[in-house]
Amino acid sequence: MNQQLKLLSDAELLAASESEYMGPAQLYTFRQRLLAEEQALFATAGETNLHLQETVMASDPTDRASAEEEHTLELRVRDRERKLIKKIRQALQRIDNGSYGWCEETGEPIGIPRLIARPTASLCLEAQERHEQRERQFG
Fold first, then answer.
1. Which range has the worst mean pLDDT, 9-13, 44-48, 76-80, 87-91?
2. pLDDT band for position 72 (50/70/90)?
């Protein structure tokens, strides 16, 4: 089936009719984008691990502090990437179970523009705004 499908450009995704929403071509395109992003994250994770292993401890306290700060920043970035990989895998599961592109809270379409910008989105814009507002209010 995938051999018949082609990757759609952003313009083609945006130009699609409502009846094509989350049809095979769109799902194939988003799956491929998610898989490519996941692979890129795995590649950078490997580079981070190599960089952390290669670092030589300096005898100068200032150099040592700079190196430790670099490591802390790299680990923080790596943690964000790990969380993004988890979201990518959840999005791939939603593609597999047929719920991708539909808001988990309202059941409404998330919308192609939002999915192009954030392929891991699981909430429509309005639901996401409500979620963020609740987080700000209640911590």
1. 44-48
2. confident
CB 68 within 8 A of CB 45: no
Rounded to whole angstroms, the Cα distance separating 136 from 139 reads 5
Half-sphere exposure of 108 (CA within 13 A, CB side): 10
DSSP 19: G
pTM of the model: 0.81
Q: How far is CA 90 from CA 20, 46, 72, 95, 135, in A?
A: 23, 22, 27, 9, 22
Helices (H), 20-124: 24-54, 61-97, 112-117
